[in-house]
Amino acid sequence: MNPHLARVRIFPLKSFDGQDVSEAVVLRSGALAHDREYCLLDADGNFVNAKRFGERLLPIRSEVELGFGEITFDDGGGPRPFHLEQGRDEISEWLSERLGTLVRVARDAENGFPDDTAASGPTLISTASLETVASWFGLGVEEARRRFRANLEIGGVPAFWEDRLLGAPGETVRFRIGDVMLEGVKPCARCAVPSRDSRSGAVTGPGFAKLFADKRRETLPAWAEPRRFDHHYRLAVNTRLDASEAGKILETGDAVDLALE
Prior knowledge:
Number of strands: 15
Radius of gyration: 18 Å
Shape: globular
Oligomer: single chain
CATH architecture of the largest domain: Beta Barrel
């Protein structure tokens, strides 16, 4: 095996399209710079995401130009550019009209808006895992990437290799990618979003979660810690990074080292 960082993907606006980057800087919070830096909140301060607004949100394409601080949306009516910071009110108004509810754009440049605040580092998965899961549902691997939305993708390893990064209950597994030390905390529990087509928002047939869990149970590798799977609708690993890793860079091609005893 040749474990290495094959892909880095960040999601500047939570729940919208991700973008591949060649490298990402680690923040003091353990998050990656610009990952989930912005989010949408409703009038009650709750996240506006694909779990709640799948068929209205997922068809809206987005692309961020980080160097210029701009985001361009396209809901099928042509591209609509905005400045991410100076244009937050305009973005809120434009998206409120399309989502059918009042939303506002919020920002947290240091912590981002992670799904799991106790394991707020980048999520990690292997390319082979995505390929295997895609084959279960007749999807392309890029569609699987878009549905499961992991930050770090590991190449040169077999499917579900990332389960090696999970210790016994209550334990973490330390590993290194390039110069960056990470801890594997737990397998990522999935919500309803992966059952939806990433471009239309339509649900992919009935029983997606059950079929996924059945297949995951059948293919759980020998190196996985079974006690970490109270259910098998889990894929990818949630990580945590110490503040000492702040300022370090994760770069595609970096070697992954598990020999840290």
